[in-house]
Design brief:
The complex is a heterodimer of chains A (203) and B (164).
Chain A: H1 6-33, H2 35-54, H3 57-73, H4 84-102, H5 112-123, H6 132-150, H7 154-164, H8 170-177, H9 181-199
Chain B: H1 11-18, H2 24-32, H3 34-64, H4 79-95, H5 109-115, H6 121-137, H7 141-146
Helix pairs in contact in B: 2-3
The chains are: A mainly alpha (203), B mainly alpha (164).
The complex binds zinc ion (ZN).
Chain lengths: 203, 164
């Protein structure tokens, strides 16, 4: 039970981290190997992220398919330094960028998602109890928030969705976008001011 | 201490809490202040409803979507095979009509069609500015590793025309 020298201790710690990372990578590659599972678990999530990012559900479907296909084919490149979901989000962002580059894409029609899909959206509202008043209120909240997200600038919208829909921590968003943490924070604050202001949560 | 006498969290501090960057002072305040906690919880509740609804929506969309076709078994193709594959894709694109009227998100397309009008030069310039911003913001590393798979990129067999 001898005491470890400081350098040995650090090696042990980093060794453990490396092992943990390798284990995560191995587990993730296993997960990525199963294309059906991948589609089952992530398709809807990626689709939502992209659909709300670009405001074009049709293009979002194409991008989602490309993302899953590329992730699956490139699964050996997964380094284990983030979760599979984060990795897929990174790929989805890159595929989106490629699509936007490859065409003169009409970036975001402010009202499209909300106008187009609010009825579909409302139709799938989870029926909590049978209180019609609560249903109406929930529908209104969803509509308001969708419109608020649609009205954000592209940068604000992307970081908002990454943080509050993809549930990525700020430092992961920063790494993924190659954007300083302070900038991500600023975008998030502006997005929150806009969204909370709209939702009536702010004075 | 009464509510009035209390120093409540600033909007900035509340935002920091919501994005997971709240200070320990803010956490401490939230533990004791019902007013500030209510603000945080209200946003989280709204977000919760929105998240569950939008996910339910996208699950419906995904279920209605095309089955994702995987080249199986996945292996590297010889250049000749790539050529044949590309030729086949081109042929299919010509043979299969571009109509998938009620596909993935296939409702209310007429509204979209109406909404889509020719880009004005100003609009294009504005879009390009936005794209520059997006491109600058997104790190290209991940994709470059996957470049070799670009040949599998599904052609865009969309059922409606996008603005060119
Ligand atoms: Zn307070």
């Amino acid at each position: 039970m001898g005491a470890y020298a400081k350098s040995e201790f650090i090696d042990m710690v980093s060794g453990t981290r490396l092992e943990w990372r390798c284990a995560r990578r191995a587990r993730a590659i296993g997960e990525l190997d199963d294309i059906d599972g991948l589609v089952r678990n992530y398709r809807a999530k990626i689709l939502r992220f992209i659909a709300f990012s670009i405001g074009d559900p049709d293009l979002a479907e194409t991008i989602t398919q490309d993302t899953l296909l590329k992730a699956w084919m490139g699964r050996e490149n997964f380094r284990g330094d983030c979760s599979v979901r984060t990795w897929l989000t990174r790929i989805a962002l890159n595929v989106t960028r490629d699509h936007l580059r490859s065409r003169k894409f009409k970036f975001w029609k402010q009202t499209r998602v909300t106008v187009l899909d609010m009825e579909e959206m409302a139709a799938v509202l989870p029926a909590e109890g049978s209180n019609p008043e609560r249903q109406v209120l929930a529908k209104e909240k969803v509509r308001e928030l969708s419109q608020a997200v649609a009205d954000l600038s592209p940068n604000q919208r992307t970081v908002f969705l990454m943080r509050f829909v993809e549930e990525m921590p700020v430092n992961e968003i920063s790494q993924t976008l190659g954007m300083p943490v302070a900038t991500v924070r600023t975008h998030l604050h502006r997005a929150l001011n806009a969204v909370r202001g709209r939702m009536g949560a702010k004075p | 201490m009464t509510d009035e006498a209390m120093d409540h969290l600033s909007e900035e501090a509340l935002n920091d809490t919501l994005i997971g960057m709240g200070s320990s002072t803010a956490e401490l305040h939230l533990a004791t202040c019902t007013l500030c906690r209510a603000k945080v919880e209200e946003f989280q509740a709204d977000l919760g409803v929105w998240n569950s609804t939008t996910l339910a929506w996208s699950q419906v969309q995904a279920e209605q979507g095309e089955r994702i076709r995987i080249p199986a078994p996945h292996r590297r193709l010889s250049p000749a095979a790539v050529g044949w594959a590309l030729a086949a894709v081109a042929l299919l694109a010509m043979v299969i009509p571009v109509g998938r009227e009620s596909g993935v998100f296939g409702t209310k397309h007429s509204a979209v069609a109406v909404a889509q009008q020719e880009d004005s030069q100003a609009q294009i310039a504005q879009d390009n500015e936005l794209l520059k911003e997006v491109n600058a913001a997104i790190n290209p590393d991940e994709m470059s590793q996957l470049k070799e798979y670009d040949l599998f990129k599904t052609p865009p067999p969309r059922h409606r025309q996008r603005p060119q």
